[in-house]
Design goal:
Chain lengths: 655, 149
Amino acid sequence: MGDLMKDDEKKTKKQLLDELTELRSQNAALKKTTNGNIASELVMQEATRYAESIVETVREPLLILDANLKIISANRNFYTTFKVNPANTIGRFIYDLGNRQWDIPKLRELLENILPKKEVFNGFEVEHTFHNIGHKIMLLNARQIYRADINSKIILLAIEDITERRSIEEKLLLATIVESSKDAIIGESLDGIITSWNKGAEEIYGYTKSEIIGKSISVIVPPRLPDELTDILSKIKLGEAIKSYETIRRRKDGQNIYVSLSVSAVYDAEGRILGASTIARDITERKQLENLLKESEMQYRLLFETANDGIVLLEKSEGKIAHINPSVEKMLGYSAKEVIGNKLQDVGLIIDHGDFQITMKNLNKRGILRYNDVPVKTKSGKQIYADTYLVDKAKFAQCNIRDITERRSKEKEIRLLNEDLEKRILQRTAQLNEANKELASFAYSVSHDLRAPLRGIDGWSLALLEEYGDTLDDQGRKYLQRVRTETQQMGMLIEDLLNLSRITRIEPQLMPIDLTAMASSIANRLQEENPQRNIEFIIQPALRANGDNHLINIVLTNLFDNAVKFTGKQFLPRIEFGKTEVDGGKAFFVRDNGAGFDMAHAPKLFGAFQRLHKSSEFPGTGIGLATVQRIIHRHGGRIWANAQIDQGATFYFTL
Amino acid sequence: MNTKTILLVEDNPSDIELTKRALANANIANKLVVAEDGQEALDYLFGTGHYAGRDAAPLLAVVLLDLKLPKVDGLDILRRIRANERTKRLPVVILTSSQEEQDIAAGYDLGANSYIQKPVDFLKFAEAIKTLGLYWLVLNELPHLRNNS
């Protein structure tokens, strides 16, 4: 007031009086017209100040609106967050704010529909893209307050910007998804340097995150596919995405795997391409299955095309021919074009006389149906025969046809030949049996009948000698003695021959034989029979073999008899029996120090009636060694001899 | 000392004579009856045919039996001897030139008491006869042929 008075003092009294009159009239007018308004304005100002002070203390953007949704006040955070200034804000209709950017349908709904009814509303989420600040996610808390003193409502509208929180949450979620993904998710820079590597990538490629981050993506690309990476990255640089691209990658352990790649560009906030993100799925198993399938398809095709058998593929529904292979064309004379769409009987091949569907049912049940010896008429009318079978091949019924015409005629030929052969064998067998019987009865006759007269000759010669010996002179007695000697020699010959033939007829009965014991007993007998001779027998102990006891006895007896015979002129005869190493194998041997023989005659040694010595020197029938050889051969063994004249002989044999 | 008869079943005349001579040389003085074929031997043994009415059970010491005989062969005769209650224990010695193992086995199977091969060397045969005579006529105690008379 003092300052006012000083100004007033400079003015004239007149001026002052005029002003006063003016003020008074104004005052009176005011008093008249706006009686309550002044008071109300005062209250309003107070309320505003009150609200502003609250608003400023709140950290979130906050708006105070009047009942008409005009902005009474906004706090500093509102201005900074939404980049607006107070001049363009206060007193404005909220929807008009910032070039009508706040005309958000959801906000309208909240303010106009929900709030009037509920008065309080918390956590109402609004998402909106602002021209100036971009996309925002906001949580709105609103409260409607009724001021009784001014008889009006104000609205407090708190706006929480949760855009960043959301994005962090989303990033976290994304990170979790990335980590838990079975697919490899890899981030890489535009020059191919790996920047991120999830667990899936560790699993699929075998590299841990720590060892591969910072390395070039080419580490997992097989050396033969280098351009692929360049291609991929250049597409990414152009902003193109790559979807489900199947290729090969190399694991840390060197194993190649099939992967399906989806690559997309990674942008920064400003929309520039920072790098690439690759999602890789291991499709090795699927690929291998595909390859197997492809391979088996190829093999089937190859088989189909090259098979010697004719192959016809039939539609399952009606039995119509779908494909035939070249062999069918060759066999039946029809071209594929001619027969496709026809039925089997149309090409002269009748395998089922009934309904094709019944055949299909049977095929389904049994998996394969055979029709042997099926007569087939070729296109030219020629009659051939085929073995055919039907197999189920998923889409088709496969009919294999094998031309057996030639085989049939060959078989017939063979059958005839066999029949003839069998007839001849029967005839020959009968003849042989006849001959064998004759031989047997001959042997029996020889054994019995031939020996009886010999015994008679010998017996009567003996009787003559005994009863009339004294009427004969020495010469006569000597002649009679010669008759007896010859007779007995012939008896031995017959006996040896019979032995030889018997050995041929009987089957050796193999059993373990103590050869040492057998040889010792033969040696004992020989010593007893030749008491005047001092023969030294040297027999190795513990000699064993598998053989026919009786036959091996004949072998040893013959060899020992021979040894005794041919050492007859030896002053100190020595006979050895043992086992030794010969030419890398083991063989038994009988060795003597007797007369020996010239090896030039060795081939004759084992022939029947072959003798290497004069009878006057060493008597014998010449059958003994033939018998021995036959026995050894019947045991599957070998016999041979080594000798020198007057140096003894050694007979070796194996069993 | 010995009145028992020897039955020689043999068809070869030479063998018959030489056997007789061998027995004589061995001082075996028993009566020797010779049957020259199988049927004759059976007739003698069982009192049939030519021998009908004869004492059907002659007191025999031993039968010397050849195998290969006319009409009925030696193994058949042996079978009949063994099948008859009266003769089943009669000593039978097979005397033959057969060395066939099946003959030897069949002979023993049918109950031959001995099996002697006739060697060509008659001296050996004579020795065998002598041994045989000694054994069957002197040493061996005869079984009772008629145990129910």
